[in-house]
# Entry
Amino acid sequence: MFELTILGTSAAVPYKDRYLAGQVLNVQSELYLIDCGEGTQFRIKDLGIRKSKINHIFISHLHGDHCFGLFGVLTSMAMSGRTDPLSIYSPSGLKDMIETVFQYTYYQSPFTINFNEINTQIVSQILENQYLTVTAFPLYHRIPTIGFLIKEKPFPLNIIPEKIEQYQIPYSAIKAIKNGGDYHNTEGGIIPNSELTLPPYKPRSYAYCSDTAYNETLVPILEGVDMLYHEATFMHDMADHATETGHSTTIQAATIAQVAGVGQLIIGHYSSRYENLNILLDEAKSVFENTVLGIDGNVYSLDLQRII
Ligand SMILES: [Zn+2]
Ligand SMILES: [Zn+2]
# Structure
């Protein structure tokens, strides 16, 4: 499973049915929370997301609309009996901020919080586990800000179930075949790997860019990602204002997607000046056809596809 749930798409302040920045990425049933604006815990609850499955939280920057929800999420996790450690990745300052709030509220977390301070000037891998890697990269905003690139690790070959039966392949031999080996049967015969397997699935990838001004140095990092979330705070007639405030327009987000050759662009982080989001979508689509609106509560998933 590789599934993104968007919790909030509003920039700076909540607007009608749009909450502040927050997303949950589900990869193989592990949940990764990306940004945590105020109200995130309400969205998590309303959408039935199991917060006990969240072990990693990624915060792009310390503007309130991206991290003020943390206090509620962390204390709610404790109230539900959490004891598992939690890792948080962010630019510097977040640890002090959270510990200060904890101090003045006489609060002690019952679970360990591992704070990982990320260098916002360089591209660096910040997490690797069995299924994926997470890479942080610099964004171009008013304060130190990072984006995140989540990539699945390569999959093994797919063994054809009927072949297991046909050649009576024991369980102990399967791993080697999935890794490309031939099968040596008990009579000394060799069944070539190509007869036993289908090509592996293509690793899926997702990149998160919020908040950022238009900057083409992002292109090589985002090259070929399957799904890109890129902020599009403004319509393009506000391009000057976008640049001044460290944000992007629809056309700029779509241009990055186009030049980087991504599979799909999801836009979001909308200014509260826009009630009707279709005008933003249409403008983005004029540059990059495969653009969709990020909508609070919507789920965006990537299916497995074999490498041909
Ligand atoms: Zn923001
Ligand atoms: Zn910001």
Summary: The longest strand covers residues 2-8. The chain has a mean pLDDT of 96. The longest helix spans residues 94-104.
